[in-house]
Amino acid sequence: MIYEIAGLRISIKNRCKYTESFCEKYLSGDQDSPADLEVAVTNEEFYAEKSLSEGFSDGYIENICLYRAICRQLPVLNRMLLHAAVLEYDGNGYAFLGRSGTGKSTHTGLWLKYLKNSRIVNGDKPILEYKNGGFIAYGTPWMGKEGLGCNASVPLKGLCFLEQAKENEAVKLTPAEAATRVFAQILLPEDADNAALTLELTDKLVTEIPCYLLKCTISEEAVQKSFEALTGKTYGK
Amino acid sequence: MKIKNGFVVRKVGGESVVVPVGEMSKNFHGMINLNETGAFLWNFFTAEHTVDEGVQALLGEYDVEEEIARTDVEQFVKTIQENGFAE
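Output (structure tokens, whole complex):
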């Protein structure tokens, strides 16, 4: 079936039913026009993933492999996967990044609590597109264990790396500092073209989008710090 | 010495990084960060050259003493060979 994800027509050749209901909201009304991208999972890849994911259904495993297969081919289409939670506030998108367990969902949950007009576009694995000199973040069916997100897109205006701390502080990062941190949150394809383009897109991301490190506690003050750094607005006004 | 094919080098955020691609990505995982001299030497040794030629190239590009340039090139070549990146 053909799905419309991240502004692309993607033909997904799945064997298990799981992916069909998983991607339901993204199904294209036009199944006849050509696709931009076609993906299927090889047996080799399926069994490699299965050996790593004991206890999960075949459908779940195939579904993980399918997204990886999609994302590996994105850079030649000016897009890339970013492991992050993207929030929309006032029409703009902000990405929150950090290793598992650093509090991405906690901090984004606080934004939702304290900031009206905010919503999660993709809680875990958005696709970014470089377009007209800026980045767009897309919701996709793949959005993490919590399944938070929507079929929407938003212009990306800031990146915020999270670190737990005793005091709240937002620090601007240099492109080089941000690059080191972003590398841990991207997928590096194995083929030369897509690998090179991933690095080029990452360079644009860290040089053109303001990047911050938020040292934070679990508090409203933490939201204030990241909000003010990312939006340039005064919190609570 | 010549560096094997199968790497992509790009500047990201102003710093040079090298990543393995294709067959090379199966043997080596991860990313290599290069400083300015490292990036210059990496590029130079993608073609077959001797250590002496590397030293001369470095002297032609940067204002350094020959002894320091030689140490840099020898260290670079050693690192490349130890990691199995040399043909």
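The first strand of chain A starts at residue 2 and ends at 5.
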